[in-house]
Amino acid sequence: MCQDIFDLKAESLFLNCLCCVGGLIKFAAAVANMKYAGGLDGLYIAVLVIRIFVSLGIFGIGIFGYYSILSDYVRGLWLYMALMVVFTALDASMLTLYIFNEQEINDRLISRIYATEELREIEGLYKCCGKTGIDEYIKEQKEVPSSCYNDDPLLRRVVLERDGCDLKLNEYFQQKKSRTLFVFWVFVVVQVHIY
Fold first, then answer.
1. What is the sign of the dihedral through the CA atoms of 173, 179, 182 and 186?
2. What's the pLDDT score for residue 124?
3. What's the pTM value of the predicted model, to 2 decimals?
4. What confidence category does residue 1 fall into, taking pLDDT thresholds of 50, 70 and 90?
5. Of the candidates 50, 71, 103, which is a domain's last residue?
6. Which of 17, 100, 138, 168 could make an SS bond with 128 (beta carbons 3.0 to 4.6 A apart)?
7. End-to-end alpha-carbon separation of the chain, Å?
């Protein structure tokens, strides 16, 4: 019996550690996204504020969970579980808000990225050429900039990128969404396991 209680405490402490780390990672990601928040209106700002609030809440609840587990504070454990349900629901609402408005948010972010970064920097970073593709330069009879050429380590040569930066940025946001959904579901599984 005593061993079972010890195992449960150790497992709960480990899961609380995951919650604290997850909260800090979510906070860091939200702060990193603030770079592009200037000039965007309510929808993106709302998602960002919810992300910051939820991430700090998850971190704080994880710390409170440590205290409750180590001090055998039963009421604290009940409060801890109730708060985790609330914050998991807030996290789910943030994801739902983002998913239903994903294209609008992504289009605004892409416009903001173009406004704050030089196209040449974006081409080099995302391995793309022009906003819509290399045809953009060909139609305007402009020289294709060096930022459209990238080293390909597999082919061991320089390759001219043909895809537009709009496409590459949308792919980046899709990958980011997939990672966010994965982290969210891992978080939900951890929370369900704690209960």
1. negative
2. 79
3. 0.60
4. very low
5. 103
6. 168
7. 19
The domain of 25 spans 1-103
Residue holding tokens 């982290």? 183
**Domains of the chain: total:** 2
Segment 98-113 shows an average pLDDT of 75
Query: What is the spatial distance between Cα 164 and Cα 127, in angstroms, rounded to a whole number?
Result: 9
Residue 12: how many other CB atoms lie within 10 Å = 19
Compute the distance between CA of residue 186 and CA of residue 21 in angstroms, rounded to an integer: 13
Q: How many angstroms separate the CA atoms of 80 and 67, rounded?
A: 10
pLDDT tens figures, 17-60:
877 887 888 788 777 777 666 555 666 677 778 788 888 888 88
101 close to 125: Cβ distance less than 8 angstroms: no
Could you give the CA distance from residue 18 to residue 80 in angstroms, rounded to a whole number? 15
And the tokens for 183? Answer: 């982290």
